[in-house]
Amino acid sequence: MPRRLLPILPLALALTPLPGQVRPSTPARVEDFEGKIVRDLKFKGAASPDALARYLTTRTGQPLRSAEVQEDMRNLWRRPKVKVLAVWVEPEGDGVRVVFEVSEPRSYDRVVFQGLREFTDLEVRELLGIRVAHRLADVDALDHQRVLEARYRGEGYAFARVIIERDDETSTLTFVIDEGPKVTVRRVRFRGNQSFPGTAPLRLYANLIGDAEIESAPAGRILRGSAYSEEAVLDDLERLRLYYRARGYRDAEVELAEEQFTPDFSEVDLTFRIIEGPRYRIRSVDVQHFANDALVAEPRFDASELIAELQVKPGDYYDRDLVNRDKRAIENFYGARGHPIQGRYGRAPLPSAFKWHRSDWMQPQETFDPESAEIDLVYQIVEGTPKVLRDVVIEGNTDTQDRIVRRKVFLNPGDTLDLREVDRSLQVLDALRYFQDPDTFAGARFELLPTEADDEVDLAIQVQEGDTGSFVWGAGVSTGAGVQGRIQFNKRNFDLFRPPSSFSPGTLFSEIVESKAWHGAGQELELLLAPGTEISTFRVSFYEPDLFGNHLDTIGLRVQGFRSLRILDSFNSDARGLILGLQRNFTENFTLGFSVRQESIEIEDVDANAPQIVWDAFGQNEVRSVKVQATFRDLDSFLQPSAGYDVRIGAELAGGIFGANEDFYALEFGARYYHTLRRDSLDRAHVFHVNQQFDVGGGYGDTEDLFLTERYYMGGSTLRGFDQRRAGPTQFGEPLGGEARWLSRFEYQFPLVSTRRERAFREVELLRGVLFTDMGLLGTRIDADNFSELRMSVGAGVRIHVPVLGVPIALDFALPLLYEQTDDRQILFFSLSR
User: Fold this and answer.
1) Which of 1, 412, 610, 788 is the most buried (most CB within 10 A)?
2) How many angstroms separate the CA atoms of 496 and 493, rounded?
3) What contacts 766, CB < 8 A, 6 or more positions away?
C-alpha cells in the first residue's frame, strides 16, 4: 500500500457503510485533514455527478469539515435510488480531494413519446408525472411502461404495446406506443341464466346487465358499446356473483366463457357462463333481544310483535333487498316508539335497535344449510330505553330566524322521540331549500345528542345558509308562449322588515347578495318581467307563511299584483289584477285557502271571424270573485315525488254581488298520484304517475256563458300532441273553449343519467325518461254532445334536471291517436314544468 494513503485509511473505513447499515457513522479521526482546503470533489460511479453535487455542503475552495461530510452523506442517502458505498479523502496539492463512491442508475436527459393518438403528450406526462425537462432513471422506465399500457387497456385499447428505446449518445429515452384498435363491447351473452334475463326494455324488470350494473355494456342501436378491458370484465364477474348471491343463489358461479373479436379487432362479443345452483329459501325467522351481550328473557316488545312487522316469511325465497327492507321495518318500529337508531342521525346516545358494536352483526344473522338449501334468519336487537326530546338546538343559521326552522320540526320538548316525525321534519325543511350546500346540494343535518338524563336527548339541527335568491334573465322560445324575454327575481326566505342598512349603491347590492338584508323570515318574493310575442306577463308576488306567528297550525298571507297581455287566435286581451289570499295550514298535508280577486280585462283587436263569445266580451270587463280551495298532500318529495298523492278541490264565485259585471262560477278537482314500481341499485325510482283534472263552470243570473278568459282549453301543456288551445270545439275556425273539461294523464318515469357529487349522500338525477298517454274531453256544456269527443295521444320525453331551477326542463314528443279534423296537432312540446 502506498505510504501516502496510510493516514486516510481510518477515515475511509469509518465512512464505508457496513452491510445492513442505514447511514455511515461520523469519521473517528480527521485531525490530519480537518481544515484543509478542498481542491476537488469527485463522484465515483455516478451517472449524474453535477446533479449530486448540488446536494453537498462541502464546496471546493472551502475548508474541509468532518461534520459537513457527515451531513453530505445523509443528504445523498436521502436521494431515491442513490447508494453511498464509501467516502474517502486524498491529498491534492496543498489541499485534499474528497471522493464519494456511489451507485446510481442510468438516467436520461430527454423523454420522448411516439405514436400517441388517443392521448396528448401533455396528458401522458401528467399521468406519469414526467415534466418536459425531467430526467428519468432507467429503472423507472419499466414502471412507466406498465402504467401507460394499463391506462390504454382501461380505455379499450386491449392490444396496446409500449416499447422502450434507449439512446445513450443523445441521452434520450423513447416510449414507442403501438395503440392498436380501440375495442368496444358489441354484444354480451349469458348462458345458464334461467332466473334472470340478460336485458329488459327500459329496465322495466330485473335483468343482469342493468341491475348487476356491469361495466361491459353492449352497444345499442344508436350508441356504441362501452370500452373493453380485462379489468372491467373481472369486475363484472364479481358483480354478477354478488347479484345472484344477494337473491338467494348462494352457490352461484360465474365465469367468462368466450371472448370473440371481430376480424378488425374493433369490437368484441362477451359470453358469460352462469351456474345458478339452488335458490335458498327462508326456513325460519326469529328475533332475539340482547342486553350486555346476554339474551333477554322478557324484552320490552315481544318477538311476535316484531315478526308481525316483517314481510319475509318462512318458505319465501331469500332476497337480500327484502331482508334489508324488513330490517328497516324493525328500525321504524322502534323509531316510532322513541328508540333511536344507531347511525341514522349522527351519533346515537345509547345502543340502538341493532347490535352495531360487532361488525359481524351489522346484518341479520344468516345460517345456511347447503344440504337443504335453506337459511335461518335471526334479527338480534338491543332495545335500550325510549327517549324523550328535551330540546331542539339550531346551529349555523347566521341570518335565518330560529322560528323558521323550529316550525318545521313536528316534535315539541317533552314528546316521545318519534323518528317518523324527525324524518318528516327533515324532508319538509329540505323542501324549503333555504339551507343547501353549494357543492353537494345537501340540506340540513340532524343529529341526536345525549344529555345528563339517560331517557332524554337533544335534537341538533345543523344548517348552512344557502343561496335563496335567484336572478334570471334571457330569452327563449316555447310552444305555449312563443318568443319571450324574461327578467325574474325570486327570493325565498325573504324578510320584508329587514331592509338594508343603507340604500347607497355601494352597500345596497352587497347586503342583498350576501343575504344580510331582506333575508331570514321565511317569506317569499317574486318579481317577473316577461315580454313576449304572444304572451307578456308582469307580476309581483309576496307570501308570508306564518302571518300571526303561530309556529304550527299557521295562517299564511299571499298578495299578488299582475298584468298579462295575450295575443290569441282571434283577439287580444289586457288584464290587470290583484289577488289577496289567506291560507290555513292545519298540517303540512292539509291546507284550506280563501282568496279574493279584482281583475280588469280589456278585450280588443277582435277578428271578424271571432266566435260570438269573444264579441260578447269585447271592451272593458270587471271581474271580482272569491275562491275557496282545499289541498290534501302526502308526497315523499315536493321536487321529485316518487310516492304519494296531491289532491286539490276548489270553488270560485264571481259576479254582480261583488260589484262587478261578470257573473260566473267555477269548480275544479285535481289529483296527482305517484307509485314507486321499483328502485334500481342506485336507489333511483321507477315511477308510475297518474294525473286527473276535472273542471266545470258556467254563468248564472243574466249571464249564460262562462266568461271568455275563464273558459277551459286543451292542447300544449294540458294535452300533448295538440297545439296550444287547439284541441276542442271551434266556431268559424277559431277555438271556442268550453265550460267542462276532463284531462287524464298516465306516465311511466324512469331514470337515465345521474351523478353523485363529492361528499354528497345521494344520487342527483340529471336526466329522466318519460312514456306517457294523454287523454281529454272538452265540451261547450257538460251535457253537450261535444263533451263526448275524446282526444288521445301517446309519446315519450325527457326531463332535464337543473338543480338551480328547481323544476325540470320538459321535452316531449307526442303522437295524436284520437282527434277531430278541426284540431291542430303538434308533435313536439317543451316547457319548464314538473
Assistant:
1) 610
2) 10
3) 753, 754, 755, 800, 801
